[in-house]
């Protein structure tokens, strides 16, 4: 087989059986040529088989890569979803705490108002007790009426109304 015949056989693809037939009937040149031809065809078959295996393994690797990518995406999405749920829970707790703080502030203001009124009443009572020693009935009645007006006035202002018109 000459060089031209070998290159044309490569271009055609797999060797056909007629290419494997000896060209000349003499046995000395034919043995070498047939051995080379056999080596060439074995190499070609091995190369084709290796190419098939490579294609199959490449497809398997692509499928596994897609599977791994999907698992990674699922894991990342799960973490993001969990973070989002935690963020919403924290926001709800903050709102609840803010409402509790506002309620506590209102209650504190009410207690301060009540204690101020009680303190004022105690001071007035003490001053009345002390002044009773030196006052007569008419002055005592005047002091009680004055104290009632002052108490109503203070209570009306604390509740957000205007002064009592009494």
From TrEMBL:
Q: What are its GO cellular component terms?
A: BLOC-1 complex
InterPro entries with a match to the protein in the record: BLOC1S1
Which GO biological process categories is it annotated with? endosomal transport
One Pfam family name is GCN5L1
List every stretch annotated Disordered: 1-27
What family is it from? Belongs to the BLOC1S1 family.
- Designated name of the protein: Biogenesis of lysosome-related organelles complex 1 subunit 1
Instruction: List the lineage, top down.
Output: Eukaryota, Viridiplantae, Streptophyta, Embryophyta, Tracheophyta
């Amino acid at each position: 087989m000459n060089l031209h015949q070998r290159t044309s056989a490569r271009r055609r693809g797999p060797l056909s059986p007629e290419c494997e037939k000896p060209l000349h009937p003499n046995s000395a040149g034919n043995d070498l040529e047939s051995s080379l031809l056999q080596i060439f065809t074995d190499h070609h078959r091995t190369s084709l088989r290796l190419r098939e295996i490579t294609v199959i393994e490449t497809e398997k690797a692509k499928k596994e890569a897609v599977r791994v990518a999907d698992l990674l995406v699922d894991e990342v999405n799960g973490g993001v979803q969990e973070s989002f749920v935690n963020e919403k829970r924290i926001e709800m707790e903050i709102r609840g705490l803010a409402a509790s703080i506002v309620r506590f502030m209102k209650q504190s203001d009410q207690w301060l108002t009540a204690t101020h009124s009680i303190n004022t009443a105690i001071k007035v009572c003490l001053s009345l007790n002390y002044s009773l020693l030196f006052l007569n009935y008419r002055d005592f009645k005047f002091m009680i009426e004055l104290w009632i007006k002052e108490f109503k006035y203070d209570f009306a202002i604390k509740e957000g109304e205007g002064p009592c018109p009494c």
